[in-house]
Specification:
mainly beta; 10 helices; GH; about 650 residues; signal; polysaccharide degradation; globular; carbohydrate metabolism
């Protein structure tokens, strides 16, 4: 966050650009459609499927910063983290790691009360201790400061000391960040992406709780891509944290995280929206917070959404300690979508100016609907693969705040409701399950690997999922942005996808399911480019051994595009003939089945210009002999070898 003392000197969060949200997952047949409510526009039903699970929600919350905004009072702590009438139901508290240990005690009281209400607490630093910092020139800033390179170990100990201090005071921190907004640090400490990677690789493992990085102020992917692309740094990062100041909705999705972030959490750790100048009760401006949260949950698939100051004129709690309209927007999520709930598939933009998302936990399905239109609209929601037994609903609009809404009907598995003009409505549906008493989904399958790539097909394999009662099958899906298309099904940890188009890039992922119909979270993705179907004349391959030692060697492969058009996306295949096995690769991602090796490109080698080439390096084991491999093919077409 920007202020050293009070509010930012300039508004960082200009109105975010809007985009049309593509209708997302959930093509299940509609079970029933109720008649539209008189006087409101009609739309087809949104199918809500509790078995089609997405990300697990960690929670919603905000920042308490006693040094800059004053501490919350005892009553305000209960308003923030309690979940009764007139309370926000926050389940996450963010606190500050002061560079001076003498100031740490200021964070304790509110953190203790948040924990007593069941919230988790995480912490972010703005600066290391002054003894660990040096100044340098960064552009026109002659007094920029950074952590001294010889102090990385001491800084990790400083962060760990804060973890232990809070634990001694009854607060087990869920996580610590290594730096708040390292790329927007004119008045605090700058970090480059490479410095963050170095710290994560060499020092973050000494911190005794989860580690958050990089907390870029605008979700700048160049700050986090290097972490995702470095296996050691990634292993020492537990949560990818991001801020969303001025970030366009089109930049919310993060395909690289979906591909490589398996087992990690994705959090939005700070924002205020749309600005810090207007009153938090200004309507309908406050409704924009509801839409912003919708896109954060659906488009970005964040697992946490954390506001800046909890109590502020522009925040979720006014200075008088009462919930603001912006706070009500957050409460429509935080009070009902509780920690451990899972977002489930539902069409996100069923009609103009209407945004819907859905979540499940235990015997509850929660649907949050934002209507930005200036008139009421009729919207139906059909629950698939479950039985609805009860309904409660709550609305905030120009005249009501978290008020009980009368009028929705629930019949035949379909909820029929009128969404008031410029409103947010939360529906809490009590459900059963069509799968019996087993409600535990399988674990996610392993990242699929591709082999036997042809012009029209690819064979995928993955590490099997596990389940408390047993996995009964797998569903392979083709992924395009936020849309998934069924591609194949299998009862084993492998499947062949057919009917593909030649020389086309595809992205695939896998779900596991059990006998009760519970579905796992999605696996990480794999990118595949189908073959061209041509035999010769479009590629050349140079292969050489650059170093060797007993039992191993280093090799280099140069892939030449000898065609007259650029090649974007490719799959290289070849066969070892003496039992060699690739152990590490740069410039590409290998998959080896027996003696056959398939290589897909890294981001920086994905495109090969006409007449150009890319180089791949690798390490491998070898036996008594090490002959060159044979049968090089690119996208299924045979290459000439040099």
């Amino acid at each position: 966050m920007t202020p050293r003392q009070e509010e930012p000197t300039a508004d960082r969060s200009a109105l975010l650009s809007r985009r049309t949200v593509l209708a997302a997952m959930g093509a299940a047949p509609i079970l029933a459609v109720a008649a539209p409510t008189s006087g409101a526009a009609a739309a087809s039903a949104v199918v809500v499927d509790p078995a089609a699970r997405r990300q697990t929600i960690r929670g919603f919350g905000g920042m308490n910063h006693p040094a800059w905004a004053g501490d919350l009072t005892a009553a305000q702590r209960d308003t923030a983290f309690g979940n009764g009438t007139g309370q926000l139901g926050f389940s996450i508290l963010r606190i500050h790691i002061d560079e001076n240990k003498a100031n740490w005690s200021a964070e304790v009281a509110t953190a203790q009360r948040a924990v007593a209400h069941g919230a988790i607490v995480f912490a972010s630093p703005w600066n290391p201790p002054s003894t660990m910092v040096e100044t340098f020139t960064r552009g026109s800033q002659t007094n920029a400061q950074r952590l001294r390179y010889d102090m990385y170990g001491a800084y990790a100990q400083h962060l760990n000391d804060f973890v232990q201090f809070m634990k001694t005071n009854g607060v087990d921190l869920y996580a610590v960040s290594i730096q708040n907004e390292p790329d927007y640090a004119s008045t605090w400490t700058w970090w480059t992406a490479s410095e963050i990677v170095t710290f994560l690789r060499n020092n973050a493992g000494a911190i005794s709780t989860r580690v958050i990085a990089p907390e870029s102020f605008q979700y700048v992917k160049s700050m986090s891509d290097p972490i995702l692309n470095d296996a050691t740094a990634l292993a020492n990062m537990d949560i990818l944290g991001a801020h969303l100041y001025g970030t366009s909705y089109s930049n919310f999705p993060y395909p690289l995280f979906q591909q490589k972030g398996q087992g990690k959490e994705l959090w939005m750790t700070e924002v205020y929206y749309p600005n810090s100048t207007d009153s938090a009760d200004l309507w309908p401006a406050a409704l924009g917070v509801g839409e912003h949260m919708h896109h954060a949950m659906v488009d970005a698939e964040f697992q946490a959404y954390v506001w800046w100051y909890i109590r502020r004129s522009y925040g979720p709690m006014r200075e008088d300690g009462q919930i603001s309209k912006r706070g009500a927007m957050m409460a429509h999520f935080s009070k009902f979508v509780r920690p451990g709930y899972v977002r489930i598939n539902a069409v996100s933009n069923p009609q103009t100016n209407v945004y819907t998302s859905a979540y499940t936990g235990g015997s509850t399905v929660v649907i949050v609907a934002v209507n930005k239109a200036t008139s009421a609209v009729s919207q139906q929601f059909t629950l698939a693969n479950t039985t609805a037994t009860g309904l409660a609903s709550y609305v905030t609009d120009s005249s009501r705040t978290l008020a009980t809404l009368s009028g929705p009907t629930l019949a035949g598995g379909t909820l029929s409701a009128t969404l008031p003009a410029q409103s947010i409505t939360t529906f809490v549906v009590t459900v059963g399950t069509s799968g019996g008493t087993d409600t535990t989904p399988p674990t996610a399958p392993g990242t699929p690997t591709a082999s036997a790539v042809t012009a029209t097909s690819v064979t995928l394999s993955w590490t099997a999922a596990t389940d408390d009662t047993g996995v009964t099958g797998y569903d392979v899906v083709r992924v395009s942005g936020s849309t998934e298309t069924p591609a194949a099904s299998s009862t084993t940890a492998g499947a062949t996808v057919t009917g593909l188009t030649a020389a086309t890039a595809y992205t695939f992922a896998v779900y596991a399911r059990d006998a009760a119909g519970n579905r796992s979270s999605r696996s990480a993705t794999v990118n595949v480019t189908t073959g061209t179907g041509t035999s010769t004349g479009t590629c050349g391959v140079g292969y050489k051994v650059t170093n060797s030692w007993g039992g191993g060697f280093q090799g280099e492969i140069t892939v030449q595009n000898t065609s007259t058009t650029a090649l974007s996306g490719w799959t290289l295949a070849f066969t070892f003939t003496a039992g060699q096995t690739v152990t590490q690769m740069w410039g590409g991602t290998p998959a080896q089945t027996g003696s056959t090796v398939t290589v897909t490109p890294a981001d920086y080698t994905r495109t090969i210009p006409a007449g150009g080439s890319v180089t791949i390096g690798f390490l491998a084991t070898q036996g008594a002999t090490n002959p060159n491999p044979s049968g090089f093919t690119l996208n299924g077409g045979t290459c000439t070898s040099a």
